[in-house]
């Protein structure tokens, strides 16, 4: 097993996660099998309890692990399936050591950070690195480890110590340290400054780690003399210094690394040059080129709660992007804060209310994502009603699907107080109820989490076709509430169709309105399994419907525009030509 450690210096937010994922992808393109580990030095045992408002979305894995969103980046770039153990936190490590201590495994010795915590970290890394994540048998060739935070943080110290010991243990030729740093340009002199990087490399060395490769974030490519200086002061050969200068989008990062021969530098450090082939990134490059040149917009209104922080919906945005690129559309996200659509806003801030409705009405498609808590619920219901009544393509995810059922029960069945018992426990029409998989009396550990199977009930429905005429699909879940199975006959009689259910037939997974161009809700979160080259079926359906090409996508069983190596799409889906003028008012919120 070979290890690539990615650390960060100077400031946070340099794009360490994207760099680590890109390194993984590049090595994969060289024919190697790659896995990844993300280390988060915080004390939470997992990301499940962390607010997406503060921390970005909680990413969910097949095994039900609730993890840092960086694992989503790894899965998307490497098309891998990770496990909860691929995300190490301080909380997990301490918990495992304390559990052992309670069991008496340390035989009366004093339990300390060094060696017990540091040993536990190394054992964890070694164990997880050997687990295949690409569906093939046998251990991967390389494990890319990303250490969260910035060198010098107090909370990452035990990890640095452990990784220092680990690099010594696995020995040279098996360990490569890539340090991501910042080379700022001061506007007064316009000069690329190396001092911050020098300092952070010094910090790294003083902690016992020596960088093999420097990846410098900068606005432009590093000047030769700047590289020479960095090389001298940081003791890293010039060929091992790469610049991650600003690019239009993150799909360029693996290409940037390849162009600067980062793979050769890494493979050399790892003694893998003879095992690897020339990197094949033809399909990736073609897709990136298409992404760069898209002009014809598709406007999707995201009716959510945390509209201030786009990271709270990262996977949803990525899934929309994958689908848009596949349909050759330029994604324009219109952020609509759900509560702005509500009547109360009309009274308190009419301008805000009008602006929100204008955005919603200008969109080609509407998406109501998942969520917890009752803020904005009424606004989401109004947006759903608008989509349903005006034949606007609509996708509701998890809470979005539940509210679509609530809206239908209220408007069509006339159950005026229909609600989810999450928001109104006393409602006389509980169409969404608490349906935990475990205990009904305890909240803790009752979430339905991770991969579960959905069986399609109707072969002729849009969702089944989008999934390639599948009989069943496995998608990831994260919820406690579900559509009330006792109300299904009534709701179905009124026209809403539950086209996907679990194996018991009691849990509603996919809902569709057959009379509508595209009105689909899913109890699961399809966004977590979307990949740049394999867009998620239900997102593809939304984007295709919003661009007027759903029919051709349905006919081909959910396939569009397979991107060929020369960058020419050989599919047939063509979207309608958009008539609106200024499409870019809100940007697309994708580059951060
Ligand atoms: N709050 C809802 C539930 O627990 C929906 C959750 C979600 O959207 N992820 O079922």
From TrEMBL:
It catalyses: UTP + L-glutamine + ATP + H2O = CTP + L-glutamate + ADP + phosphate + 2 H(+). Residues 309-543 form the Glutamine amidotransferase domain. Residues 2-272 form the CTP synthase N-terminal domain. The keyword ATP-binding applies. CDD domains: CTPS_N (cd03113), GATase1_CTP_Synthase (cd01746). Keywords: ATP-binding, Glutamine amidotransferase, Ligase, Nucleotide-binding, Pyrimidine biosynthesis. One of its GO terms (molecular function) is ATP binding. It comes from the Eukaryota. This is CTP synthase.
């Amino acid at each position: 097993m070979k290890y690539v450690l990615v650390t960060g210096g100077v400031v946070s937010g340099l794009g360490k996660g994207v760099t680590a994922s890109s390194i993984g992808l590049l090595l994969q393109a060289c024919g190697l099998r790659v896995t990844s580990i993300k280390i988060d030095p915080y004390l939470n045992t997992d990301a499940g309890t962390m607010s997406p408002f503060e921390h970005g979305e909680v990413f969910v894995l097949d095994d039900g692990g609730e993890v840092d969103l960086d694992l989503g980046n790894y899965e998307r770039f490497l098309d891998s399936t990770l496990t909860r153990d691929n995300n190490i936190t301080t909380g997990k490590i301490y918990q495992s050591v304390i559990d052992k201590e309670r069991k008496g495994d340390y035989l009366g010795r004093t339990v300390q950070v060094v060696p017990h915590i540091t040993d536990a970290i190394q054992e964890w890394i070694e164990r997880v690195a050997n687990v295949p994540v690409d569906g093939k048998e046998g251990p991967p060739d390389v494990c890319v480890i990303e250490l969260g935070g910035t060198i010098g943080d107090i909370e990452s110290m035990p990890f640095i110590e452990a990784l220092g010991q680990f690099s010594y243990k696995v020995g040279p030729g098996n360990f490569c340290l890539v340090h991501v740093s910042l080379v700022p340009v001061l506007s007064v002199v316009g000069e690329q400054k190396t001092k911050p990087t020098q300092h952070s490399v010094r910090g790294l060395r003083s902690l016992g780690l020596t960088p093999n490769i420097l990846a410098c974030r900068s606005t432009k490519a590093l000047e030769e003399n700047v590289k020479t200086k960095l090389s001298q002061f940081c003791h890293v050969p010039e060929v091992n210094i790469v610049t991650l200068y600003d690019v239009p989008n993150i799909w360029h990062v693996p290409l940037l690394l390849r162009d600067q021969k980062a793979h050769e530098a890494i493979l050399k450090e790892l003694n893998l040059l003879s095992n690897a082939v020339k990197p094949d990134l033809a399909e990736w490059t073609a897709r990136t080129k298409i992404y760069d040149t898209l002009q014809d917009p598709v406007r999707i209104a995201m009716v959510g709660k945390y509209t201030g922080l786009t990271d709270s919906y990262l996977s949803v945005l990525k899934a929309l992007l994958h689908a848009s690129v596949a349909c050759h559309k330029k994604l324009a996200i219109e952020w609509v804060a759900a509560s702005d659509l509500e009547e109360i806003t009309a009274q308190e801030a009419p301008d805000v209310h009008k602006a929100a409705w204008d955005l919603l009405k200008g969109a080609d498609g509407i998406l109501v994502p998942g969520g917890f808590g009752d803020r904005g619920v009424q606004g989401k219901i109004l947006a759903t009603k608008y989509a349903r009544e005006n034949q606007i393509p609509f996708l509701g995810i998890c809470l979005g699907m539940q509210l679509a059922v609530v809206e239908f029960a209220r408007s069509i069945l006339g159950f005026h107080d229909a609600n989810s018992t999450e928001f109104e426990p006393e409602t006389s029409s509980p169409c969404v109820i608490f349906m935990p998989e475990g205990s009904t009396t305890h909240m803790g550990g009752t979430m339905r989490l991770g991969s579960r199977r959905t069986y399609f009930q109707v072969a002729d429905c849009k969702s089944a076709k989008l999934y390639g005429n599948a009989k069943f699909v496995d998608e990831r879940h994260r919820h406690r509430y579900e559509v009330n199975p006792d109300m299904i006959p009534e709701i179905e009689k009124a026209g809403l169709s539950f086209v996907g259910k679990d194996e018991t037939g009691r849990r509603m997974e996919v809902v569709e309105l057959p009379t509508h161009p595209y009105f689909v809700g899913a109890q699961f979160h399809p966004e977590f399994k979307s990949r740049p080259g394999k867009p998620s079926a239900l997102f593809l359906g939304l984007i295709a419907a919003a661009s007027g090409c759903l029919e051709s996508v349905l006919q081909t069983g959910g396939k569009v525009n397979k991107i060929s190596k020369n960058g020419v799409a050989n599919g047939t889906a063509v979207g309608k030509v958009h008539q609106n003028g200024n499409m870019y008012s809100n940007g697309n919120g994708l580059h951060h």
